[in-house]
Design a protein that fits this description.
This protein is α/β, with parallel strands linked by helices. It has a single domain, classed as Carbon-nitrogen hydrolase (Nitrilase/N-carbamoyl-D-aminoacid amidohydrolase), CATH 3.60.110.10. It is 19% helix and 28% strand. It has four helices and 14 strands. The strands form three sheets. It has a six-stranded mixed sheet with strand order 5-4-3-2-1-14. A six-stranded mixed sheet has the order 6-7-8-9-12-13, with helices on one face. Strand 2, helix 2 and strand 3 form a beta-alpha-beta unit. Helix 1 packs parallel to helix 2. The relative contact order is 0.18. The model has no long low-confidence stretch (mean pLDDT 96).
Length: 269
């Protein structure tokens, strides 16, 4: 069994920011300012979970259609940056409301992933429907597995079956649980022999929840390439080395001893 690997480096930018509560226009304007300096300087920009609203449990008045204004905005910004742009937002579908991650490429292409594991402690499962599939996205020679917040706690769902090189996790992960967030990002990288990019928000939402951020870019050994002091907004870019990933997977081929399994009903598509 051969482990396919990327052939070129990938520049990844994390944007950690406070969010305007349930105000999509204000959030898009904010990210306009933060994105502008990244033009031609990155390949992929990662925004937080529900980056247009904050983590809201009132999707009825906030959900966008599947081809809504934020998708249009993401396409315009991705084209201007010459880079892919991803983040999740509240979306209205024929199945109901979903917490949907959009991955938009500079040529206008869009792939999506609907959050599979809904955070019942906040009642998310009462307002949204769970995603029905695991998704691997191909971009610039890299295989990318998107995930959203609570998904990070479920290693079987995120298990690398020789099918991805970079795990993305966008989040609104509250400050009291910042230690598990950091540990899980590193654990997912180590066990899956992959890079992990986790982007969380900062500030306080209208429910009085505080967010410390702790957005990180972690390499395949669990070592941080991006890691800032908690609580502060930032924009930072790091380069993922294809050659270093390939070399480590060759000299430490733990993937060859992994258990072979499938998750019924959740095959990639």
């Amino acid at each position: 069994m051969q482990h396919l690997t990327p052939e070129q480096d990938l520049r990844v930018s994390l944007i950690q920011a406070s969010l305007h509560w349930q105000d999509p226009q204000a959030n898009r304007r904010q990210f306009d300012d933060l994105l502008r300096p990244l033009a031609a300087a990155t390949d992929l920009v990662v925004l937080p979970e529900m980056f247009t609203t904050g983590f809201t449990m009132t999707p009825e008045g906030l959900a966008e259609p599947e081809a809504g204004p934020t998708l249009d905005w993401m396409r315009e910004r991705a084209a201007g940056l010459g880079a892919a742009l991803c983040g999740s937002l509240v979306t209205r579908t024929g199945r109901g409301y979903v917490n949907r991650l959009l991955f938009v490429t500079p040529d206008g292409g869009c792939e999506s992933y609907d959050k599979r594991h809904l955070f019942r402690m906040a009642g998310e499962h009462e307002h949204y429907v769970a995603g029905e599939s695991r998704r691997v996205i191909a971009y610039r020679g890299w295989r990318i597995l998107p995930s959203v917040c609570y998904d990070l706690r479920f290693p079987v769902f995120l298990r690398n079956r020789n099918d991805y090189d970079l795990l993305l996790c966008v989040a609104n992960w509250p400050a009291p649980r910042r230690h598990p967030w950091r540990v899980l990002l590193q654990a997912r990288a180590v066990e899956n022999l992959c890079y992990v990019a986790g982007v969380n928000r900062v500030g306080q939402d209208a429910n009085g929840l505080d967010y410390s951020g702790d957005s990180m870019l972690v390499d395949f050994k669990g070592e941080a390439k991006i890691d800032r002091d908690p609580g502060q907004p930032f924009v930072e870019t790091a380069t993922l080395s294809a050659s270093e990933l390939n070399r480590f997977r060759t000299v430490f081929p733990a993937w060859q001893d992994a258990d072979d399994f499938v998750i019924p009903g959740l095959e990639p598509r």
